[in-house]
Write a structure and sequence with these properties.
This protein is α+β, with helices and mostly antiparallel strands. It has three helices and seven strands, in the order H-E-E-H-E-E-E-E-E-H. The chain has helices at residues 3-21, 61-78, 155-162, and strands at residues 38-45, 48-54, 83-96, 99-100, 126-127, 130-142, 152-154. Strands 1-2-6-3-7 form a five-stranded antiparallel beta sheet. Strand 1 and strand 2 (48-54) form a beta hairpin. Helix 2 (61-78) crosses helix 3 (155-162). 19% of the residues are buried.
Length: 167
């Protein structure tokens, strides 16, 4: 490979890695931003909500789940309820960004002349990719004493436990 071409490839690779490293860090707790980091909710019925919390790079999956629970506690109190029960949900994660590397070499033919081609390729995975987690929960809210069930939470207690300030 000519020296000029290798410099161009190295420069492109360096730029791509810098772009991957420049991804935003942990997002402050709050409504989802234009990239989808933060919480979103959908009111299904008066006492039933679907909550999604999208964590930015660097927010562990367990923390993303906790932030979705925190939002459920806030929604319960905002809507005049004392507790909520998680009736469904899931946690997913994906890798985004990074650089995928590959290589290939070949020759061709033109007119009466022909040539033999040799090719090589590979995928070395995404270098510099970051993990992003998303928690989705569906909650049913109620008033009075919190049910003695594993997926039922006192709204005030969950907010006290998970913090009311920024993350």
């Amino acid at each position: 490979m000519p020296h000029c071409a290798s410099k161009t490839i190295a420069a492109a690779l360096a730029a791509a890695l810098l772009a991957a490293c420049a991804a935003t860090g942990p997002t402050a707790y709050g409504p989802a931003d234009d990239k989808g980091f933060g919480y979103q909710e959908t009111k299904i019925e008066d006492n039933r909500f679907r909550i999604t919390y999208g964590g930015s790079a660097g927010v562990p999956a367990g923390e993303v789940e906790n932030l979705a629970l925190r939002r459920a506690g806030e929604l319960a109190l905002e809507n005049g309820y004392d507790w909520f029960r998680v009736i469904g949900g899931d946690l997913s994660s994906e890798k985004r960004g990074g650089v995928a590397l590959g290589a290939g070499v070949g020759t061709g033919s033109y007119g009466r002349s022909s040539g033999v081609s040799v090719g090589a390729g590979g995928n070395f995975g995404a270098i510099g990719a970051k993990e992003f987690a998303t928690a989705r929960i569906e909650v049913l809210m109620g008033s009075g004493e919190t049910p003695d069930e594993p997926n039922a939470y006192d709204a005030n207690a969950i907010i006290d436990s998970l913090g009311a300030g920024g993350v």
